[in-house]
Amino acid sequence: MLNKQYTSMLQEKDVIFEIFQYATERAKVVGAENIYDFSLGNPSVPAPSIVNETIVQKVNTLDPLALHGYSPSFGIMETREKIAVFLNKKYGSSYKASNIFMAIGAAGALAHAFRAVTNPGDEIITFAPCFSEYKPYTAGAGLKLTIIPADIDTFQINFAAFEAQLNENTTAVLINSPNNPSGIVYSTETIKKLADILTEKSKEFGHPIYLISDEPYRDIIFEGVDAPYVANYYKNTLTCYSFSKSISLPGERIGYLAVHPDCIEADKIIEICPQISRTIGQNGAASLMQRTVADVCNYTSDLSVYETNKKILFEALKEYGYHCVEPGGTFYMFPRSLEPDSQAFCKKAMEKDLMLVPGDIFGCPGHFRIAYCVPTERVEKALPIFQELAEEYL
Amino acid sequence: MLNKQYTSMLQEKDVIFEIFQYATERAKVVGAENIYDFSLGNPSVPAPSIVNETIVQKVNTLDPLALHGYSPSFGIMETREKIAVFLNKKYGSSYKASNIFMAIGAAGALAHAFRAVTNPGDEIITFAPCFSEYKPYTAGAGLKLTIIPADIDTFQINFAAFEAQLNENTTAVLINSPNNPSGIVYSTETIKKLADILTEKSKEFGHPIYLISDEPYRDIIFEGVDAPYVANYYKNTLTCYSFSKSISLPGERIGYLAVHPDCIEADKIIEICPQISRTIGQNGAASLMQRTVADVCNYTSDLSVYETNKKILFEALKEYGYHCVEPGGTFYMFPRSLEPDSQAFCKKAMEKDLMLVPGDIFGCPGHFRIAYCVPTERVEKALPIFQELAEEYL
């Protein structure tokens, strides 16, 4: 018999992808230039040229047996070393290669992190608004996911609701800063307060509460924004990173898990990652890509377009009467919808060929997500539609 | 608390890899030229040059946003199409692109296949000798794995034991031909008989018993060997393939699941694969590699060395007094150990710096595996050690 869990998931398919598919179909009818698709978080700037140059150099110079051969199950040692060195230089941390596990993107890193520090039935807490895929990710590890309601005035953490929820079954807390969908960066004050609470409650409950920090947008931070490196404030932190957004390689599925060197059982957490991998499809990162990112981990794509787009869009929306907390990074914005029912609002936008994602799937109804990882010209051409939409409400 | 299941797995770590690691350490002491390492199934011939040429061509000609961007969750359509066409031409099958799901190697394909057609608690049956990783693979999907004892005279299927075991909870049967570790290829007679039993029992139990066919060694078949394409004999077949061995890309983690077009619920099986992927780490195949294999799926490495090695080794072992069923493919051989305790036997070999893997981990004690994916010269130089070892017993 086909699997019931996965069959039932078909009912609640990926909403974002459905909108994207609608946009693609619609483009065939009215022309792509008349569709304003802000549904997908797909980088709009290419990988820096050094990425492709490095791929070609590896292919042309390395022994093919070594280049394409099995990697150690933790990842290629040279890559892990270079990433540790890079992190230490950038964030003043003290990672060793043995704290790094190479994974297939942030999702792969999260899959290992969840399974390493929890047991099925445990509770994991995250904060709205949050990435819609956290539900299947944590369900796959047998976890009970609790989503703390958003503080919609700031999109920092709603600490009162969080503290009320924390309990003995909570073994991990999951954060995502810079945040998808809000674009908000947790401040040093927020991270410090979170760390204090986790330290205190770990003591009270008699077991560590691990902090799993999902950081694919870490390199997209706007000017002047207070953006602390999370692991520096709480030693029991597992950092999940992806090269998808920083060097625009989402399809190559390459990232890593970095376990704070002073994390409780740090060595064992890394040691069991290959065991986890054995049970979920031997999903180690691909060899050529591991060798490539080893050499380019200190590069980023030209990410400036995202800040440019943010400024234009944020100012315009404010002028049109939208309410939005200003993003500190990413390429997302999360304004309030102009009617309480954000699905109805997004449907209205869709009728104008403007593709937005309702906040409901991020655990935060009454809002909508704009993924402005598009050429600036597209943002500018979409403004009159945002305005027209606003005028229907205000 | 760290995960109990994965922590306990550390006790029964990958034996093969431990032997390989010992060999690597030992090589530092006595020199690599004095170590005869037959532990790992790592291809010894490079990828055909067309592979690297194709990678470079893709990198140099495709728009980097498309090249490295998110793929559809089923895999890139063009790649799925080309694979379907290739399979149909080679095996007379009638796959459509929609029957193909791109996965991270055969392990990734298996991870999806197991989860698609079973529910946790179901029984899956496989046949000794079998790949040691089937245990964690199926445990990860919550399955009860039953291993049917080997027919050690032929290493075809022990049908009497199989039929006695089949029951209502059996929802899938897993086979691996050409086989790791025996090198045996299931004959047309074996596959036909298996298909007949599965058809009959599916009727009797009132639900399909799916056949999951793990085929990473499908392209390494020796001259004159009867090697049927499994799915042609049983429509409810899910074929799991990897490019690891055929074009020597094990580290690139690229393969696919092909569902027979007439399989019961074929469309739904593929449809739920991306849902499965969401829960086990979004483990889709990397984009550049998908585009590469699309163009080279009709190529293989020069695989002839494996047959050369087989001949030399098989004849020599026979002469020295070993008993071995002659392999029909792969780069493995699975002779009987010269004492009933194959672990003790392999330890004795190891003392002579000859690295062999005891059959116990393949569900078939009393045997040992030789992975002869090494240069022919290494095989030749190892022969006197095999002989010396035999002389201690005979």
From TrEMBL, chains A, B:
<dbReference type="InterPro" id="IPR015424">
    <property type="entry name" value="PyrdxlP-dep_Trfase"/>
</dbReference>
<dbReference type="InterPro" id="IPR004838">
    <property type="entry name" value="NHTrfase_class1_PyrdxlP-BS"/>
</dbReference>
<dbReference type="Pfam" id="PF00155">
    <property type="entry name" value="Aminotran_1_2"/>
</dbReference>
<dbReference type="GO" id="GO:0008483">
    <property type="term" value="F:transaminase activity"/>
</dbReference>
<dbReference type="InterPro" id="IPR004839">
    <property type="entry name" value="Aminotransferase_I/II_large"/>
</dbReference>
<dbReference type="InterPro" id="IPR015422">
    <property type="entry name" value="PyrdxlP-dep_Trfase_small"/>
</dbReference>
<comment type="similarity">
    <text>Belongs to the class-I pyridoxal-phosphate-dependent aminotransferase family.</text>
</comment>
<dbReference type="GO" id="GO:0030170">
    <property type="term" value="F:pyridoxal phosphate binding"/>
</dbReference>
<protein>
    <recommendedName>
        <fullName>Aminotransferase</fullName>
        <ecNumber>2.6.1.-</ecNumber>
    </recommendedName>
</protein>
<feature type="domain" description="Aminotransferase class I/classII large">
    <location>
        <begin position="36"/>
        <end position="383"/>
    </location>
</feature>
<keyword id="KW-0808">Transferase</keyword>
<dbReference type="InterPro" id="IPR015421">
    <property type="entry name" value="PyrdxlP-dep_Trfase_major"/>
</dbReference>
<keyword id="KW-0032">Aminotransferase</keyword>
